[in-house]
Design goal:
The radius of gyration is 35 Å and the shape is elongated. It is of the alpha+beta class. It contains 19 helices and 18 strands. Strands 5, 6, 7, 8, 9, 10, 11, 12, 13, 14, 15 and 16 form a twelve-stranded antiparallel sheet that branches. α12 packs antiparallel against α13.
């Protein structure tokens, strides 16, 4: 058996053995790469320069360089001078080839309706955070926040769902690459005393106050059955960079007008928050148990405090890498890894159905349309080049050239589909970061909340992962200020981004002289409504015989009598409501041929009409 003895002398080179262990490289390529790694950085890395220190000719060295370039160990780029003339070639030599970021594209569908070919990428989750030392100095961030109300999306018909989805796509497409958008869905506890007072029926010092007190207890029992102890609010925050406040205001005003118009098309009521209202929102996040917010701008000069002192909790603690403490609460921020081939528009609704409150944030950043197309074209070119190399390798190995790795075939087809969607359909590319914030009183309850949220993500074939050692940045990215400090982003098209529909069902819970109408069929929350505050206070009771129309009318009359101070007038030709009026100690007027009460048709109200004379109108009536 032959024995090879290695004798090491001075002047040797230390390098990675990755290429030496790579069975796909030829000995010629391995030797050339080893030689190039041993040379100084200022060496003449041209084909002619390499041929001077080897016995091989330029053609043989060119073939070895091309093999290393195809394997990813060498990257070449042509440089030009100030006049655009070719100046030379720059070589980047790697001891290990860098990983290629290949997009995978799938077509998410909605539960109902199925929308037209929404596509999304499906690579593994990538952390695209750049080194801050390489970033230019940012201009000042300026933002505005819009609060919008919910609409009945989950209960809508398929055509209405499609219309809402398309309107949401149009709104996202209206944001260019210079605008950062944050969608915040907040579910937190309300002040218990204020909430109980909102359903308390005030006594009226009559014989029915005991019934009002009993009715109040019944409403409180119904309150505990639903989730009305939670206040669910939705915000859209958009951020721009500007040198001064004047230029920022002009841009923000234009974006504000366009966004409000888009919400109007969707059918959701929206309003812009001022400074104090935004502080109240932040106070509600930092005080999740519903503490009252007390603040006035004139307090700042006299107290010497800043606005942060009025919204901050008693303490923050970020010592644990997997959770944090905020006042008396424990919290965890997690991010959603979207690895599912299909997405459902029910995902956000399921997250918001949490019993103890949750905060979900979507940071959406548009990519310049031309740059997105160029990037995808470069990926397609790289994939085609890799496919050709695999075919050459197959020919050299003696098997069918059509047999290529399945990943290359899949990636190539999906990249071409994505390019076709961007060029022929109303699609743009976005970078999406989805963060979930859970809060609880104890660590055990917090673990249960996080486990429940992870189960919802798993239900839709996604992964909810904690932000280890980045909880502080995650918390600051979970408040509606429009700044994303977690750059774990996922590339999605417009339709794929709009699949995260922020609408579920519209709640009707008014205060004041509001009547109880039952429970919401979808959310199981109480329905309290003051019809006088609606756009149209009129109502009809329709139903088949025996379905309870008269009972519904009597219940409405009784509620109005116990809760409001309104006058109730009933026209009852069948004398069906006579017993109820008697029990409520009302007045009954009988109008008939045999009754003792009469209606005087000649009675005239002189203030009846502003145009014609009351006497002429009465004469025409008679």
């Amino acid at each position: 058996m032959a024995v090879f003895r290695v004798e090491k002398n001075k002047g040797y080179t230390v390098m990675s053995n990755h290429h030496l262990r790579n069975k796909e490289l030829s000995l010629k390529a391995k030797g050339l790469l080893s030689q190039m790694l041993s040379l100084p950085e200022d060496w003449d890395y041209t084909l002619a320069g390499l041929s001077l220190i080897n016995r091989e000719k330029i053609d043989a060295i060119r073939e070895a360089v091309r093999e290393l370039e195809n394997a990813g160990y060498i990257q070449r780029s042509r440089e030009r001078d100030e006049k655009g003339r070719l100046r030379g070639t720059t070589y980047v030599i790697y001891e290990q080839p860098p990983k290629l970021d290949l997009p995978t594209l799938e077509k998410p569908t909605l539960d109902n309706p199925t929308l037209e070919k929404p596509t999304l990428e499906n690579p593994t989750q990538l952390n695209k955070e750049l080194l801050k030392t390489n970033l230019p100095k940012k201009e000042k961030l300026n933002s505005k926040c819009i609060e919008f109300e919910d609409i009945n999306y989950q209960l809508a018909q398929p055509d209405d769902k499609t219309a809402i989805f398309e309107a949401l796509c149009d709104m996202y497409n209206s944001f260019d690459a210079s605008i950062s958008v944050q969608l915040s869905l907040i579910s937190r506890h309300a002040n218990k005393d204020d909430f109980k007072n909102s359903i308390t029926i005030a006594p009226q010092n009559d014989d029915f106050d005991s019934i009002r007190a009993e009715y109040t207890e019944m409403l409180r029992t119904q309150l505990e059955r639903g989730n009305n102890g939670l206040i669910k609010t939705k915000f859209l925050t958009f951020t721009v960079e500007a040198k001064d406040i004047r230029s920022a205001r002009a841009r923000l005003a234009r974006i504000e007008t366009d966004t409000l118009n888009h919400f109007k098309v969707i059918g959701a009521a929206a309003r812009v928050l001022d400074g104090k209202q935004r502080l109240e929102v932040l106070h509600g996040i930092f005080h999740p148990d519903g503490e009252r917010f007390n603040f006035a701008w004139e307090w700042l000069p006299a107290s010497g405090l800043s606005v942060k002192d009025f919204i901050a909790p008693s303490s923050f603690r970020f010592g644990d890498g997997r959770m944090f403490q905020m006042g008396g609460k424990f919290g965890v921020v997690s991010f959603l890894q979207i690895v599912a081939p299909e997405l459902s528009d029910r995902m956000l609704a399921d997250f918001m159905d949490a019993e103890n409150g949750i905060i979900v944030n979507l940071h959406i950043q548009s990519i310049d349309h031309n740059e997105a197309i160029k990037t995808i074209k470069r990926k397609i070119t790289d994939l085609d080049r890799m496919k050709i190399e695999e075919q050459k390798k197959a020919i050299r190995s003696g098997y069918d050239m059509d047999i290529i790795p399945s990943d290359l075939a899949t990636y190539g087809g999906e990249a071409k589909n994505l390019l076709r969607d961007l060029q022929s359909r109303n699609e743009r590319m976005f970078l999406l970061t989805l963060l979930v914030l859970n809060l609880a009183d104890t660590k055990q309850k917090l673990d249960n909340e996080v486990f429940g949220a992870a189960a919802i993500a798993q239900k839709y074939n996604c992964i909810l992962t904690r932000l280890d050692y980045r909880q502080e940045q995650g918390l600051m990215s979970s408040i509606p200020l429009g700044e994303n400090l977690i750059h774990i982003q996922r590339g999605l098209t417009t339709s794929s981004t709009a699949v995260f529909v922020p609408f579920t069902v519209q709640e009707l819970f008014q205060s004041g002289e509001a009547l109880y109408y039952g429970l919401n069929a979808l959310s199981n929350n109480m329905i309290l409504c003051d019809r006088k505050k609606l756009k149209n206070p009129n109502g009809l009771i329709l139903g088949t015989p025996g379905s309870g129309k008269s009972f519904s009318a009597k219940r409405e009359i009784t509620n109005a009598f116990l809760i409001t101070s309104d006058d109730i007038i009933i026209c009852d030709p069948e004398a069906e409501y006579y017993p109820l009026v008697g029990r409520l100690k009302g007045q009954v007027i009988k109008v008939s041929q045999n009754s003792t009460q009469y209606i005087n048709p000649m009675d005239i109200n002189l203030n009846y009409s502003e145009g014609d004379t009351p006497i002429a109108l009465k004469s025409d009536f008679i």
